[in-house]
Amino acid sequence: MVRIPILRMGDCLLVTIQVDMQDQTAMALQEDLSDRIAATGARGVLIDISALEIVDSFVGRMLASISGIARILDATTVVVGMQPAVAITLVELGLSLEGVRTALNVELGMELLRRARLEGSLGR
Amino acid sequence: MVRIPILRMGDCLLVTIQVDMQDQTAMALQEDLSDRIAATGARGVLIDISALEIVDSFVGRMLASISGIARILDATTVVVGMQPAVAITLVELGLSLEGVRTALNVELGMELLRRARLEGSLGR
Does the ipTM exceed 0.85? Predict the structure, then answer.
């Protein structure tokens, strides 16, 4: 089974999805990511999907689910690099990725996380 | 054919290798990476191979070749995340990855790039 590597950068974790997600890969990623968030105290998770040409309902649910788990562990998830054609298809399929934040690329995603954290700390 | 995504972070490019490299994938990565270094003016390239359980002479040559191309384009390459077992096998095979810089993980690799740049700018 393919295990997707999770890279740590400061207080963020970065995951680049390059392979078609199967059930097992997705489950392993969820587990690994939860463990790493807990172990490192990461506050942000960036998931790069620029290599994906198709995002079906399975991947959509996985992204939403990872985002939900991370939120409970006090980390914000940003999905980055979605191809425009993928966004079009998602909307046509009625998959709106609710609760999932997005950014055009890793840099903008990091900026979003930084701002979210600032606002969070000010708001509390 | 699988195209490996190249992520930009500041003046670094990050590549996570997750799939077994075939000739075509390796050639495409070399081309894409050279184009991106030229287009972005990146000064550093981080190649994460933590997902690879085997690094054979083909991958070893590819890493050395990418490192050489990047150097000509004035960028430093750091290979990060190599599994200890891979390092052992490489040495046993007599592949010393000459000319390729390495670091334990992405964070240390970035630190290495930052220091290399400082020294470079002081030394000139």
Answer: no
The answer to whether residue A85 neighbours chain B at the CB level (below 8 Å) is no
CB nearest B19 (choices: A3, A18, A106) = A18
Interchain contact B4–A (C-beta under 8 A): yes
Q: What is the pLDDT of residues A65-77, one digit of tens each?
A: 999 999 999 999 9
How far apart are alpha carbons B85 and B90 in whole angstroms? 9
> In chain A, what residues touch B3 (CB-CB under 8 Å)?
51
State how far the alpha carbon of A86 is from the alpha carbons of A26, A29, A52, A55, B4, in Å. 19, 21, 8, 6, 18
CB spacing of B105 vs A8 below 8 angstroms:
yes
Query: Which chain B residue has the Cα nearest residue A47?
Result: B7
Q: Which domains are assigned to chain A?
A: 6-123 (3.30.750.24)
Q: Three-class SS of residue B61?
A: helix
Residue with the two structure tokens 């996985």? A62
Q: How far is CA B87 from CA A78, B52, B66, B96, in A?
A: 34, 11, 19, 9
Q: How many CB atoms lie within 10 A of CB A81?
A: 23
* Among candidate residues B120, B119, B103, the one with its CA nearest the CA of residue B111: B103
